[in-house]
Every structure is written in structure tokens, then in C-alpha cells.
Write a structure and sequence with these properties.
By secondary structure, this protein is α+β, with helices and mostly antiparallel strands. The protein is built from 13 helices and 17 strands. The protein has a five-stranded antiparallel beta sheet with strand order 3-4-8-6-7.
């Protein structure tokens, strides 16, 4: 099924005789496999409103993300949360869509400084499991419209409703960017350096560490963005802050963009054999967590608060991190592992009861992506 209008979408859900596998561009095969008739949102496409002066964009859910980014770039603007492209990591095709990005709350390295996808979502329109069209939020940051269903839909993975339209706040693209590359740091020291940089007044917008980076050594990356003179000044001050270490500065705009696109999309794991886990924890706990996991490969982002781990197939990373306050999500695995291991971290019993109650309210017949998040 591929509706072309919101009314068609509502009718399809209202008259559905069984489970529906809700799908946007088909780029994120994450979660338990869903058995049901495929409902694609790609027909709900197009930018409905773009007001560069108001920093506001409204797009239908099936709009390719590339189309939105191109429209923003033409006006010197961008999505601040730097959404990840999962295709290289998951080996999928298709086109990432606005609705899929919002439903999965997809964000990238800049989240640590700018916030997540949900923080820039101003309003949504969606169809719930009864076929009812729901609208919440608006086109400005300050709206008081009752329950915040905008945030509820972000990260719901199509289990509460099928998005038909999303409104975003956008921001200007910075004039300049640079990346400090610090070579040779061990993981514990790298986390300490990233924390120091993020806690400095120099507005770091990306902090990542590759245990095996350029020339086979550890490489710690710190990104700064803004006006050219400010970037040059802050890069110099950060070099002073880390004097005595092996520091270089990359200022070529294309090279900086490519470097952080690789971090955003977890490029070192593309084509590598094994399951991929996404783990959130306190940065100071990250090296210890990695030691417990003994992964095949690892990438630290968000100053160490986000750890990407490449593990042997079938290993449940959650069983290895429970003693630490962490959160694990299975992002890539074979069909056998996806069927055996839940992708999403189990919720505490009281939270799970609330989540189930919300699902029953929005999707009483259990039509929308049943089992995907369990």
C-alpha cells in the first residue's frame, strides 16, 4: 500500500484487516522483523512550506531527506541535528525520508551540542491505529497545545501512528569549520580530553575518538564551527589547551565535512562482519564498558557518551553492561539475531506498563509495526 494523500492513508489504516509494516524509505531495518502488509509513506512527498526568514520548514513524511537538505542548502541553512544515514552501516538501499528520520529520532555527532531531532520538531500530523488524523504542535517553538505528541512521536518507530507531515525549526549553516586531530591517545585519556574540550568555552560541536584511526593509531577529533575568525581563534585556544600532545588542525571545508560524515554514519564498520550495537552511557564509564564488551572494533562519539561497538554475531551486549548504568540498542544484525535479541533496551516494569498503555490508546487493534520494539 502506498497512499498519495493523508486521507488515503487514514482510510487504509481504518480498513486494514491485519498488521501493517509501516515503512518510509526502507533504509533502517532495525528492530524485530515485522510480519504484515507493507504500508509505504513515499507517496506522501513534497515540501509543503519553507520560510527561510522564519527558519521554518514543513515537509510531508515521505519527502526524501536529500530534497529537504538541498532546499535548505540553497538558502544557506541546514538541519542542526545532523541526521545519520544508515544505508552504509546496514547495507540497505532506498532513500531516507523525513518521516523515517522523525519516527526514529535520528541524530548525529552534533547532538551533543545542538540537540536531537525531536528538539527541532515543531509540529506533526499523523494517523493513529484507528485511522484518525491527529495534529499537534505548530510552526513556532512556543506553542501550548496540550500534550506534547510531537516529542512522543519522535522515536516511536511507527508504533503509535503513521506520520504524514512534520514541521521543523532549521538554522543557518556556519561560515567555517575546523577539526582538531589529536593523535596517539589511549581511550581513557581520549575521553578525558573530549570532556575537557566540551566543558571549555570554545563551543565544540563534535567530539569523537577512533582507537584505530589514521596510521593505525588512536585519533581524537574535536570539531568547531562558526564565523571564520571565531573558528581560527577557538582552534588556536584549543591547541594551547592541549599543548604537549600531537595536535593538527584540518580547516578544508570538504575534508572536515567528509570526516564527520564518516563519524555520523559509522563508516569504519561498513562492510565489516558482525553485529553492531549502539550504547549510551556516562562518558567516564565508556572505556570500562568497552573493556567488558571486548568488541571487534569500537567508535566513540558524543565525547564518549555514545559508543558504537562491532560484536560477534549473536552476543547480547546488554548482559555485559548491566552492572554499569548504560543503554544498549542492537542496530545491525542478521535475521537470526534480530529474531532472537530485542533491538531496544528493556524498560523498567513501571515504564513498560506506561508504554503499553500508550500503545493501546493510540493503536488499540495492534496494527502498526507490531512487535518491532519488543
Amino acid at each position: 500500500m502506498r497512499p498519495e494523500t493523508e486521507a488515503e492513508l487514514a482510510e487504509m489504516i481504518r480498513t486494514a484487516g491485519g498488521p501493517l509494516h509501516v515503512r518510509g524509505g526502507g533504509t533502517r531495518a532495525i528492530g524485530r522483523p515485522v510480519t504484515g502488509e507493507v504500508l509505504e509513506t513515499g507517496g506522501l512527498s513534497g515540501i509543503a512550506l519553507y520560510e527561510p526568514g522564519a527558519l521554518t520548514l514543513v515537509a510531508r513524511a515521505g519527502t526524501p531527506l536529500a530534497e529537504v537538505e538541498a532546499a535548505l542548502a540553497a538558502e544557506g541553512q541546514r538541519l542542526p541535528f545532523e541526521p545519520m544515514d544508515h544505508r552504509g552501516l546496514l547495507g540497505t538501499g532506498g532513500e531516507p525520508t523525513v518521516g523515517g528520520m522523525a519516527a526514529a529520532n535520528v541524530s548525529g555527532p552534533r547532538r551533543i551540542q545542538a540537540g536531537a531531532c525531536r528538539d527541532y520538531m515543531l509540529g506533526v500530523r499523523f494517523v493513529d491505529g484507528t485511522g484518525t488524523v491527529v495534529r499537534n504542535g505548530g510552526r513556532v517553538m512556543k506553542n501550548v497545545t496540550g500534550y506534547d505528541l510531537v516529542k512522543l512521536m519522535a522515536g516511536s518507530w511507527g508504533t503509535l501512528g503513521v506520520l504524514s507531515e512534520v514541521a521543523f525549526k532549521v538554522l543557518p549553516t556556519p561560515e567555517s569549520s575546523a577539526t582538531l586531530r589529536i593523535a596517539g591517545l589511549a581511550e581513557t585519556e581520549a575521553v578525558r580530553v573530549m570532556s575537557e574540550a566540551l566543558g571549555s568555552p570554545f563551543e565544540v560541536t563534535g567530539a569523537a575518538h577512533l582507537p584505530v584511526g589514521a596510521e593505525g593509531r588512536g585519533e581524537t577529533l574535536l570539531r568547531i564551527e562558526g564565523f571564520s575568525e571565531s573558528v581560527a581563534y577557538r582552534a588556536g585556544r584549543l591547541r594551547e589547551l592541549f599543548a604537549g600532545r600531537e595536535v593538527s588542525v584540518e580547516t578544508d571545508a570538504g575534508a572536515v565535512a567528509a570526516l564527520w560524515a564518516g563519524i555520523r554514519d559509522v563508516a569504519p564498520f561498513h562492510g565489516a562482519v558482525g553485529d553492531v550495537w549502539r550504547l549510551s552511557c556516562k562518558p567516564s564509564d565508556a572505556p570500562g564498558l568497552v573493556a567488558r564488551l571486548s568488541p571487534e572494533a569500537v567508535l566513540y562519539d558524543w565525547g564518549g557518551g555514545l559508543v558504537w561497538a562491532l560484536m560477534k554475531a549473536g552476543v547480547d551486549a546488554r548482559k555485559l553492561i548491566n552492572p554499569l548504568a548504560g543503554h544498549a540498542m542492537l542496530v545491525r544484525a542478521g535475521e537470526a539475531s534480530r529474531a532472537l535479541l530485542p533491538a531496544f533496551h528493556p524498560e523498567p516494569a513501571p515504564v513498560a506498563a506506561l508504554s503499553e498503555g500508550i500503545r493501546r490508546k493510540f493503536d488499540p487493534k495492534g496494527l502498526l509495526n507490531p512487535g518491532l520494539m519488543t
